Amino acid sequence: MDHSHREVDTYRDTWVRYLGYANEVGEAFRALVPVGLVWVSYGVSTAYVTADAADKGKKAAAAHGEKPGKVARIGVAVVDTFVWQALASVIIPGFTINRVCAGSLWLLGRTTKLPLPIRKWTTTAIGLSTIPIIITPIDRSVDFLLDCTLRKLYEAHDNTDTKKSS
């Protein structure tokens, strides 16, 4: 029997996580809805990203207590979460779905005689079905990107703080 209890992260372990994918859904429907609704979907995703970053900053503050370096730890938690979520939940998947849909609409227009409404609905279906396929590769790629760039700066800062306090 496993007695370990991992705290549930509202922004990663519950239905709230799907708010981060709102812009991909908006992009998939771009051919069918007014562009303003697509921008609303980006607003929902951006609100999700911002709320997750604020939550991680709050948790870092609580975990760090009154130890030296608290502000830096909070900053790292907020920046890392915001950058990761912005790339993995909004920017890269939004661009990807946008291009998949634009490409499929163009290709359907060039290779079929389907009426435009059918091509638009087909494009939307292709976009929606692409979302689950792209999530894991994008998440892993963003982890790799941040591990090779931004997170190295955090490590350098931690090493500098350690040397100063010794």
Automatic annotation (TrEMBL):
One Pfam family hit: MTP18
GO cellular component, one term: mitochondrion
Lineage top rank: taxon: Eukaryota
BP GO terms, sorted: mitochondrial fission
Record InterPro entries: Mitochondrial_18_kDa_protein
Family, as annotated: Belongs to the MTFP1 family.
PANTHER family: MITOCHONDRIAL FISSION PROCESS PROTEIN 1 (PTHR11001:SF2)
The protein's name: Mitochondrial fission process protein 1
Gene name of the encoded protein: mtfp1
